[in-house]
Amino acid sequence: ENNSGDWSRKLTQRVKANTSKKRKVSLLFDHLEPEELSDHLTYLEFKSFRRISFSDYQNYIVNSCVKENPTMERSIALCNGISQWVQLMVLSRPTPQLRAEVFIKFIHVAQKLHQLQNFNTLMAVIGGLCHSSISRLKETSSCVPHDVIKVFNEMTELLSSYRNYDSYRRAYNECSNFKIPILGVHLKDLISLYEGMPDYLEDKKINIYKLYSLYNHINELIQLQEMPLPLEANMDLVHLLTLSLDLYYTEDEIYELSYAREPRSHRAAPLTPSRPPVVADWASGVAPKPDPKTISKHVQRMVDSVFKNYDHDQDGYISQEEFEKIAASFPFSFCVMAKDWEGLISRDEITAYFMRASSIYSKLGLGFSHNFQETTYLRPTFCDNCAGFLWGVIKQGYRCKDCGMNCHKQCKDLVVIECKRRPKTSVADNSPTSALASSLCPVGVKEQFHGEKRSH
Predict the structure, then answer these.
(1) In 10 A of CB 21, how many CB atoms?
(2) Which of 63, 378, 312 lies closest to 190 in space, CA to CA?
């Protein structure tokens, strides 16, 4: 009798310990365990996969592309975002040894994703590590132990497009319960079915077998969405990852960073052609296109998480040192933080940093760069950003010379309303002008890069 009471007390103590640990979480990439990363990436992936409806699949079959299909675009953009984040996290480290450590960590993340049977994110992670911006880093790969390289090669084989993804299909079919398919492979199958069978048989009979096959194929994917998620997610980490994966860089920007880290060596033998990257080509070119309001919402959530976990004395400031470590989870941590003299950083400054630093924001930001000037208002005026009153006798706020927008000093870096006066620049264009590209280039890379262009 006594024994069972003891047992239940121990259990409640353990539960208590767990809940208090739940509230405070480390948002530092270096502290995150591969398992935490794979769980949270899977949480995001599953959330995105579950949104795809039966009619989304139908539309895809008929139009054979993801344009005008926002849920699918979002799922593909997430995949591409993960792939880029993996590359940029490796490239953000200054020495080959440190880059190798990030590479090894992502291999461990890949192993956990494989155990979770999340093949879609696995493809994104391995695709990032296979990308030529990473595979060309010879000094980095020489620091990666052989057993890790062996796992990496096995994963690459598993996901290879060889014989129409034969290895993947076998592994996938052996999995039961919770699993996330490589969406691109299954979309390709739907198209093959649709195009490979006639709509009508002789005597103008509808080809029922074709409709039935398509229906079954889609239904199999839809049924996976009903599976219970075999993991718990911490929302602070979800916010961290959501913001980290929302970045969008061009291939050229990533290569530029790669060559800055390990310049082309003239002595080295010509590179043997590396295996083509495994990531399916159906996903290329789909970049995340969140609207400014969404970005603003992600940023606010992330800032809330930062303060919840790091503002220990609740005075509205966190230390510069801690913030810089958190910023390292974002490949845009090349953005220089305006140094505050006492080494403390306020909520406003962090929010402004994330808004400014998010490269999507800068690319969309073609419309946001207002021409603000400090202004004295002669009549009561409200802030167009937060709707608060502009207090004070003189110099109460800032006014945009081009569009007339008014706002507080602390709101002027957070504005997500377009500047309407300016000539429209097409943001849809996939090749940003070189001026834009250079404004996004990580600080310091330009100087190291000496204008060396990679040969296409």
Answers:
(1) 10
(2) 63
Q: Is there a single domain that holds both residue 102 and residue 231?
A: yes
Write out residues in the chain with pLDDT < 70, as ranges: 1-24, 248, 266-291, 331-342, 357-369, 416-456
Last residue within a domain, chosen from 366, 392, 422: 366
Q: What are phi and psi of 397, to 5 degrees?
A: -165, -160
Token code pair at residue 52: 């795809």
Which residues share a beta bridge with 406?
399
Question: pLDDT at position 342, please?
Answer: 63
How many CA atoms within 13 Å lie on the side-chain side of 428? 2
- Domain range spanning residue 356? 290-366
pLDDT attached to residue 125: 96
Residue 239 lies in a domain: yes
238 and 355 belong to one structural domain: no
The predicted structure's pLDDT at residue 454: 39
The last residue of one of the domains, among 332, 366, 400, is 366
Token output for 40: 């949270």
User: How many domains in the chain?
Assistant: 2
Give the chain's end-to-end CA distance (angstroms, integer).
76
φ, ψ of residue 373 in degrees (nearest 5) = -135, 140
User: Which DSSP symbol is given to 337?
Assistant: P
Query: What is the phi-psi region of residue 254: left when phi exceeds 0, alpha when psi lies from -120 to 50, beta otherwise?
Result: alpha
Q: What residue spans of 287-433 are helical by DSSP H?
A: 292-310, 320-327, 347-357, 359-364
Give per-residue pLDDT as tens, 159-215: 998 899 999 999 999 999 999 999 999 999 999 999 999 999 988 899 999 999 999
Q: What is the pTM of this model?
A: 0.74
Mark whether 68 and 217 lie in a shared domain.
Answer: yes
How confident is the model over 101-127, as pLDDT tens digits?
999 999 999 999 999 999 999 999 999
- Residue with tokens 């230390």, as numbered in its chain: 319
Q: Are 407 and 415 in contact (CB under 8 A)?
A: yes
